[in-house]
């Protein structure tokens, strides 16, 4: 017998902006200048890391967003076919953003190495209803914006 989700909705994996050619040119110029400075100081390895990092940033920025299915069950939370049991979760919070374009999100910290933080945008349901249900299964915690979150927002991936 298949289990039925308590809540289920679809949403995009992250908010991103389309980048124009100017953005990629600026990334390339900054990366080339930084790599050149590293080479002038005799640090070839740092120059290679800068070039590889800028290529990775450009590839990540060019990705198109995917739509996922988010589900909340009696036993845990699922994102598409990946299931995260409540027993593997430390705490959660409902995040609401100042930007009205961004939906509220369910933030979950887990004990898993490959998925230590889940950030699930909430669509089609009231955040209070999701909060009330998840709070029965795991404790609420303090989830603050990290340095990586701020850098990502600044660079607008």
Write up what this structure looks like:
With 157 residues, this protein is α+β, with helices and mostly antiparallel strands. It has two domains: 7-13 and 66-155, Roll (PH-domain like), CATH 2.30.29; 21-62. Helix content is 38%, strand content 24%. The protein is built from four helices and seven strands. It has helices spanning 21-40, 44-62, 127-137, 147-155, and strands at 7-12, 67-72, 76-79, 82-85, 89-95, 105-110, 117-121. The strands form two sheets. The protein has a four-stranded antiparallel sheet with strand order 1-2-3-4, with helices on one face. Strand 6 and strand 7 (117-121) form a beta hairpin. The N and C termini lie far apart (41 Å). The mean pLDDT is 86.
Mean pLDDT: 86
Biggest sheet overview: 4 strands, antiparallel
Tally the structural domains. 2
Which fold does the CATH topology of the largest domain refer to?
PH-domain like
Strand content: 15-25%
CATH-level-2 architecture of the largest domain: Roll
The sequence of SSEs as H and E is: EHHEEEEEEHH
Query: Strand order of the main beta sheet, please?
Result: 1-2-3-4
Which shape, going by the Cα principal axes? Answer: elongated
What is the tally of helical segments? 4
**C-alpha end-to-end distance:** 41 Å
Specify the structural class. alpha+beta
Which tags fit this structure?
24% strand; PH-domain like; four-stranded antiparallel beta sheet; 4 helices; three-stranded antiparallel beta sheet; alpha+beta; 157 residues; 2 domains
